[in-house]
Input
Amino acid sequence: MTLPLIIYRSLRQHALSTVVTAGSIALACGLLMCVWMVKTQSQTVFTQTTSGFDAVLGARGSKLQLVLNAIFHLEASPGNVAWADYEMIKRHPAVKTAIPIAVGDNLRGYRLVGTLPELFTTVEYAPGKKFAVRPGGRFFAADKPDAKEAVAGAFAAQRLGLKVGDTFHPFHGLAFDANSQHPDVYTVVGILAPTNTPADRVVWIPLHGLQTMSGHDARAATDVSAVLIQLRAPSAGFMLDLMYNKQGNRLTFAYPVGAIIAELFGKIAWFDQVLTLVAYLVALVAAGSVLASIYNSMSARQRDLAILRALGARRRTIFGAVVAEAACIGALGAAAGFAIYLALLAGVADVIRAQTGVVLDLTARHPVLWICPLAMIALCALGGVVPAFKAYRTPVAETLAPLS
Amino acid sequence: MLAVADLKKSFLSPEGQRVAIVGVGRFALAAGEQLALRGESGSGKTTFLNLIAGILAPDSGRVTIDGGEMTGLSEPKRDRLRAEKLGYIFQTFNLLQGYTVLENVVLGMSFGPRGADRGHAREVLGRVGLGHRLEHFPRQLSTGQQQRVAVARALANRPKLVLADEPTGNLDRKNAHEALALIREVCREHGAALLLVSHDEDVLKEFEVRKDFAEINEALKEPAR
Output
């Protein structure tokens, strides 16, 4: 009980510097864990977010832009796909499902995406999970392609305050402009149950409605923005890739969706590295602050240490007590770091969800969650070695009383 | 119990000269004996006690406590011997201000061979009249009470020898008399020998056996000093 008592009393005696130092460690630890988890979680979740599709067929252009537009509902569409092209790929024997989508309008900043009701009735957006509407609602009718009906994604409905029976005027373009309102009036017939996919941020309307929206170019009334594709077998994807991307020159076949998003993370890896470097520097500064705070308090502690020595405490006991105290400050900081980590991660996850519809798993486990706290404790203990050495060398007789 | 032979200690002066502080040829104390050493300020008596306690290493000579030679030991072993055999009462008490009364005593015991024994610590504190102040901090006590904590701490480990360096120097006459009586009485109860140094004649005259430190410290007679 000697060592814990010495450490406890010392921490209490220097409570302010203990709290401040542990706080800086908590910040460093929380930041480091958050950066790491956001990095790994977003990479995992984004590359897994395919909304149930293997590939996207779109206008000639960037595969990444196509996937971001059609799957994540970000970015502008690279162009249109003729209805005949949609019909062709739909009939291809390697294709299990082909769902066309059309974009180009919004509701107060949230995208309106035109599609067929089959998206909701036949596609599993995640293994074993199909779209569902909340009680009291329904999907738009398959037999009425001209119906001015809308099904709102859960997040969009919440943010826009939509409920079944509400009516709205769509706005032209992907960005909200109050002056570009369409005269068409749509009625909300259903609110989707949350899917934790980008579909949550979309207001869905019948494909034909978006194609024929007042003010849209009548010449493109049968075109679609992209076709979402499920394949019968993964090998077919390479065959279609060859057909559209190598042999053709009008369309782009983006396959596989996950690998294309992984490329995006490869391109922004430098940003992760900068963030990680900043977090490492914060951790080093925090360990330095442990060293400085304990070292600076050594003068005030020297008398206590000399008394302990006079009572029979060995030098190594004193050395160990100071190092253990530094490690305890590190442990306190690491524990508080978890609270900071969760708060930061929740904040970042909220922003990511609002911007992309993708939901990070706040309870996900990763080795960094134990490696980081342990490394911080070890780093703090290391920071305690310098003041511990000063304590180790405390001259007992001179410190306790002037020589007679 | 305590035997000192040819003990010498010198320090370097700021001018770089070696100054002899202690030079004791022969000094002994029997088990349970109580002896007072008279010495003026600057006479080297604190250094002498620190040499006995093993806090300072001598230039030469021997200190033997209860059969164990302090001066021949490595520093960790000196620390162990000090914790096992010695109790030390300082003039300024040297209590740990951030620790409670009970913790001060328990901590003093924890470095010894018997380890921390809270029950015994409470008992000893009760004996010195502080059973109702266990959870107080030193700053919450009077000077006399602080001295009693120092006495309890020195004796809690059942030492064979108690060293007291001007233990009443910070007390008024009444408290000094009471503290001295308490130290002597508790030492007697525990069977511990007591070596007390003081310059206060009122303290010294309470001891049956007294010695003048100037007479035994040869260093005081050297002209260089």
Strands of chain B lie at 2-12, 18-29, 34-38, 60-65, 68-69, 86-89, 161-165, 193-198, 210-212. The two ends of chain B are 31 Å apart (CA to CA). DSSP finds eight helices and nine strands in chain B. The domain at 2-221 of chain B is CATH 3.40.50.300 (Rossmann fold).
